[in-house]
Amino acid sequence: xxxxxxxxxxxxxxxxxxxxxxxxxxxxxxxxxxxxxxxxxxxxxxxxxxxxxxxxxxxxxxxxxxxxxxxxxxxxxxxxxxxxxxxxxxxxxxxxxxxxxxxxxxxxxxxxxxxxxxxxxxxxxxxxxxxxxxxxxxxxxxxxxxxxxxxxxxxxxxxxxxxxxxxxxxxxxxxxxxxxxxxxxxxxxxxxxxxxxxxxxxxxxxxxxxxxxxxxxxxxxxxxxxxxxxxxxxxxxxxxxxxxxxxxxxxxxxxxxxxxxxxxxxxxxxxxxxxxxxxxxxxxxxxxxxxxxxxxxxxxxxxxxxxxxxxxxxxxxxxxxxxxxxxxxxxxxxxxxx
Amino acid sequence: xxxxxxxxxxxxxxxxxxxxxxxxxxxxxxxxxxxxxxxxxxxxxxxxxxxxxxxxxxxxxxxxxxxxxxxxxxxxxxxxxxxxxxxxxxxxxxxxxxxxxxxxxxxxxxxxxxxxxxxxxxxxxxxxxxxxxxxxxxxxxxxxxxxxxxxxxxxxxxxxxxxxxxxxxxxxxxxxxxxxxxxxxxxxxxxxxxxxxxxxxxxxxxxxxxxxxxxxxxxxxxxxxxxxxxxxxxxxxxxxxxxxxxxxxxxxxxxxxxxxxxxxxxxxxxxxxxxxxxxxxxxxxxxxxxxxxxxxxxxxxxxxxxxxxxxxxxxxxxxxxxxxxxxxxxxxxxxxxxxxxxxxxxxxxxxxxxxxxxxxxxxxxxx
Lengths: 338, 367
Prior knowledge:
The structure holds 2 protein chains of 2 kinds.
Chain A: E1 5-16, E2 19-31, E3 36-40, H1 47-54, E4 63-72, E5 75-76, H2 82-88, E6 93-96, H3 110-122, H4 126-139, H5 145-148, H6 158-170, E7 176-180, H7 188-205, E8 208-213, H8 216-222, E9 225-230, E10 233-239, H9 240-245, H10 250-258, E11 308-311, E12 314-316, H11 330-335
Parallel strand pairs in A: 3-8, 3-9, 6-7, 7-8
Antiparallel strand pairs in A: 1-2, 1-4, 4-5, 9-10, 10-12, 11-12
Helix pairs in contact in A: 3-4, 4-6, 6-7
Chain B: E1 13-28, E2 34-50, E3 54-58, H1 65-72, E4 80-85, E5 88-89, H2 95-102, E6 105-108, H3 122-132, H4 139-151, H5 168-180, E7 186-190, H6 198-215, E8 218-222, H7 226-232, E9 235-240, E10 243-249, H8 250-255, H9 260-268, H10 274-279, H11 310-314, E11 320-321, E12 327-328, H12 333-366
Parallel strand pairs in B: 3-8, 3-9, 6-7, 7-8
Antiparallel strand pairs in B: 1-2, 1-4, 4-5, 9-10, 10-12, 11-12
Helix pairs in contact in B: 3-4, 3-5, 4-5, 5-6
């Protein structure tokens, strides 16, 4: 069966005074029905721009989807008219954002904001939509839900606003839910509540989820497969178990080594990735991670390594067979004056 | 009763905090401001920090952890209580005397974008405290600035640049250099890595550890990220609504938390390993943190505590030692470890059943 969402060679560029920023540079991945795919990466790696591109919410200018295809249920979203896209956005694909305060309208009641899409997409009457909005709020765990419909966003706490966002997103039974850093702004106990809720709803409703986050812990607990992004490119992808047990891209290895773990023994030292992510303007055709890589060789500086199969259902964009066990060559560190 | 965590007998304490309270008035009206309430941001903390130690302070937004750090440094003057630094009560001194003490106690701020003056060069930012405290003069200031930049892993030539030319991690290094410029003994690190990307966080955490070894610093490390706090701290204190609920050696707190809130907090932290994650059972707390304007009676946590009993509503539990300096403020601390897993399982099942019923209802209405 064809995947629910298939992104092929997506390129999203931003035109700035300093040059063209290739925020997303030839990204491909797919999401099957009912599965959860995680996209991980640090600030500026293009993960949010990818999700906004799928929703066709890239501000233009300065942004522009310069190439590629986004096939949703076999249909290229980039070829649709704005009118056709509106029938898909919020209806068949829904999105929850990182900051629930700025993504809710402060001058409309919560009830009105939920009923708006119900009336639009599900053609419910105002009364029916209002009742259903109450049920949705109850479903996401908001106490005395029907009374809270007449409240404004500022009367809700951060966690409650995120629940409202989830209720809105799920109001039209979407086939795909895009969650862009849904818990980054929340405290850890509230994060646990929200992740648990997303997990339950996903199981019950069989919604496919595209989870975008920088938190490897969230990815480990929530996703079936992972796509790791760096400098606008996919650098590793595979099943979540495989990626965490046997990462093959030096960037992923570096990330896993650099984070402290709650269950680690004391005294172990963190191994940070040195340096900074590259500037995305005029990126030369080399491995984008090579300036920070411990295993860099001359060949890395002559080409952009393609994604290649390194194990069944596991691909990495590295020319060499590097794993967690590969010793770090000492000489190279000095060569680069680190 | 809370005095037990305050052990002033040992001579190696650098910081001794006793019954620290920081209350903020809430007023209404423009000209005639009526006091309509009090936010008890910090409400009776007692603890000590040994020389060379790192004490971690964790808790969620609004629990009073940053206020505690600021009240210790006298950036807020505490409402009540004592803060002794090398025996001197900082709350009792002011003016020149306080300024002299400030040299010994410094702070690293959370937001590396807001805490550096954009109109000053890096050299001026780091040099200002040196000049104010007259630690060096003339050319020696310049040399000291370059030495400090080298110490935090930046190129000494960066002294003539402006903050906007640097990334978040580099700015945080500048903030650290500024704090170290006055040769402090005690540094409050207020969420120093929260604004940074994961790969950069590790760089800054390692730098702070190296500097501690090199300069013999004592840290109060405030953060909401428990993994980072556990990594860097010798002892960890957990705060909830202005109170300290647990204080113990890092490894002990994580292996055997006594307070239900600590247990929930620890179980909520995701671990970057799918094999571990699939086995774990989270304790999901219900609801949000109550307002500090009107905190619950008795134990502040009883409104969200899955194992609260009548006594928790009525009486505030004392902060007592349960052995080897493992302090907790809970009436059921001895039995919480056994009770909580069962409660967690029951809650998870109830939640699943409730969501299932709701979804069926919503679906039925849609069809």
